[in-house]
Amino acid sequence: MKKSAGILLFKKLKSEIYFFIAHPGGPFWKNKDVGSWSIPKGEFTDEEEPLQAAIREFQEETGIFLEGEFVELNPVRLKSGKKIFAWALEKDADETSIVSNEFPLEWPPKSGKFITIPEIDKCGWFKEDEAKEKLNVAQSDFIDQMIKKLS
């Protein structure tokens, strides 16, 4: 079973809660918006602690190192069967200055040509309803869990 670990940042401004989510990079995701965003996350092995993997992946995908009081969320399962472990952290971050790691991608598929793309091309802060709309359907449960914990 494939598994990933990630971090859901949140911040409170006045009486509003905002969530920090990421849009995947590359040509496949270029014009996709609703349902295609994610918490910054990545796969990990059995040898790695899930929270440490989540912190590592967040830094690889955003360039931001995190520390603080992490709140464990219940895992979710994607349609693909992959299990996503997540933690939330109250922290501000500048969505305009993210620096994502890059990887080679064969594009167009089966062409033998490779391009280098960032894992994430942008991040943003969104209120509850917009964050849930943009997130992968299964991951929107992380927003619901945090709203319950904060109320």
From TrEMBL:
The UniProt record lists the keyword Hydrolase: yes
Pfam families given in the database record: NUDIX
Keyword Hydrolase annotated: yes
InterPro entries cross-referenced by the UniProt entry: NUDIX_hydrolase-like_dom_sf, NUDIX_hydrolase_CS, NUDIX_hydrolase_dom, Nudix_hydrolase_domain
Entry keyword set: Hydrolase
Residue ranges constituting the Nudix hydrolase domain according to the UniProt record: 1-150
Name this polypeptide is given: NUDIX domain-containing protein
Organism: Flavobacterium qiangtangense
